[in-house]
UniProtKB/TrEMBL annotation:
Organism phylogeny: Eukaryota, Metazoa, Chordata, Craniata, Vertebrata
Biased composition annotated in UniProt, kind: Basic and acidic residues: 36-45
Pfam families recorded: Strabismus (PF06638)
Record's protein name: VANG1 protein
Protein localization: Cell membrane
GO CC annotation, single: plasma membrane
Membrane topology, as annotated: Multi-pass membrane protein
UniProt keyword Cell membrane present: yes
Chain's gene name: Vangl1
Biased amino acid composition, Polar residues: 74-86
Key words, A-Z: Cell membrane, Membrane, Transmembrane, Transmembrane helix
InterPro entries: VANGL
Membrane-spanning parts: 111-133, 153-172, 184-204, 224-244
Biased composition (Basic residues): 19-35
Family named by the database record: Belongs to the Vang family.
Amino acid sequence: MSAAMDTESTYSGYSHYSGHSKKAHRQGRDRHKSPRSKDGSRSEKSVTIQTPPAEPLLGNDASRAEEGQDDNWGETTTAITGTSEHSISQEDIARISKDLEDSVGLDCKRYLGLTVAAVLGLLVFLTPIAFILLPQILWRDDLEPCGTVCEGLFISVAFKLLILLIGTWALFFRQPKADLPRVFVFRALLLVLIFLFVFSYWLFYGVRILDSKDTNYQGIVQYAVSLVDALLFIHYLAIVLLELRQLQPMFTVKVVRSTDGESRYYSLGHLSIQRAALVVLENYYRDFTVYNPALLTASKSRAAKHMAGLKVYNVDGNNASGQSRAMIAAAARRRDSSHNELYYEEADHERRVKKRRARLVVAVEEAFTHIKRLQAEEQQKAPGEMMDPREAAQAIFPSMARALQKYLRTTRQQQYHSMESILQHLSFCITNNMTPKAFLERYLNPGPTLQYDRDRWFSKQWTLVSEEAVTSGLQDGVVFVLKCLDFSLVVNVKKIPFIKLSEEFIDPKSHKFVLRLQSETSV
């Protein structure tokens, strides 16, 4: 209970915004106002709407005041709280309502497709059984005796249907991973093929068997067996088209994130553009580092600061073109020296990161030395109060909290780590007897997107933009874009070139060498 009280007291001021000065708050507010022009128009027409993170460890705007803080900021600042304001235009409301309507339409389309596939599958499995049972029900007395041959065919039909049922369940009845904008062409073709095939069998059965009341029961059973065999071959065709065809790599795609330029390369087979986009998104959440917009604000604020420092005075009533030329000339002169400022800013940032990283490593190592795992025979003899992993994490967390807070602020990762997530990770490391280095790996190195909480990075809807039809296959030179609310992924497709290998034989006996001696050598 004491450890929990210490933890709560340590983070009592970090509920929504971390501690920062009022001066830094005014500076951050001025930065937001700087991109506006004189006529009051906004520089960006779109407004990003995000759900607020639940119980963040640090405030999102704390990084704006980072440059003006020293290492002793925690003792000299005043903690303030506030509420965030969002302006939403009529266009944003219309876009949100359109997204809701599109999501409802996608759900209806998905359930409609599942319903059609389920009804068709049920018809396929009941058709052979109906072919065998209908003569027994309608004109059983007129049927010719079949004997052992029909019994063997019954067993064959039963096992083939069982194999077909298992194969259909493994291939088609899967949890859908995404809602694609268009239907899967090969799957739709297979459904149409199966429907036409079963319909033709029923048509022939009704004309040649039901109408004439055929008495050759063995022939009727063999007719049902041929239907099951044909369905098995269609299932093999489905495996080839849906699974095997795309396994051989034929294209190389380059995926570039539009905001920071991070890129990856992937190899894909024969896929449609929409299915290639789905593969790209699956690999994106696994391979790309989490998108951090706080890292992109430094260059924007630097450019705004340079432009804000330029002032033109109209003394003798010159026209606006003269002022613009003077503004451009002054900006060019300042641009010549801006690389020095960038160099020293990056050097100072790296120094501050290394310093706070060293403090964090030392604090975590010292905190881990205060806990010890008790063996089974020591639990009865151990004096004092024993704790479970959660209580142990709460006990040692306050000693490392300030160092971790400063490091996350410096590296601008505070919006991705809440106090609850850090405590859960710490208790997980304690439970599995992990080292301090293993605990710090998540915070020292920005990990993939899947490593973080879904509510902080997951985009519910992506938009596929392509000049080609999304159901068409990949081709050399095709470019498509995947857009979400904050950024976009630009995908460029290149075909793997044809490689021609030739063979050259070398006789092992030809590996003979001669030692060449010279007067200058030491041999």
